[in-house]
Amino acid sequence: MKDRKWVLTLLLTILLLGAILLLLWRTGFFQAADSVEALQEYIERWTPYSHAVFFIVQFSSVVLAPIPSNITAVVGALLFGTIPAFLITTAAVLTGSMVVFALARVLGRNFVDRVVSQKISDRYRSVIKNKRDSFLVLVFLFPFFPDDIICILAGVTDISAMRFFVIAALTRPWGLLVACAVGGSAVAIPWWGMILLGAAGIAIFLLGMKYGDRIERTLIQRLHRAKGRDD
Description:
mainly alpha
């Protein structure tokens, strides 16, 4: 019975994703994805259902379309303002992250090999296996890496779905918040500021990958010592 429910859920999920893909294609989304202005016009066309369409677009940017969520977040902030765009984007991105994670978990390595290029898979598979939690945190915090693809690869590791969701929920929204703030004109970052942020992000990522295990062990040891003192 449990296996039958899994199969039914999987089929319904695939049908839903296929329907969304067909809808986006028939309504000209992929043509509009060439520029921020075209995306903005595409979403505005759906008023008064533009908020729901924006959710679908953000969800699809994780599951179907090769468009960074940060770019579509800017479009949403231009249309709806910083906070509404951030809330919708966060809900859509986390939902999409769990969907691709679950698909990889259920369908296994064959599914991953079909949707992730061999080059990217070879680049990240070993590091996500050996430095799982620290790697996911760093990838989700900084918008320089294929975090949507990492969600798929995480599905074939031994990480639990709840642990993956907690990591994604605590880390993925921050980059989305910055994108929404920029799009909503709440924050204006000059070009040199973007360069500095990029350099700092890459440096922190590399340091985290090199010393992440050591930092994690140190924190765990301190927590154990603090717990011993409390007892």
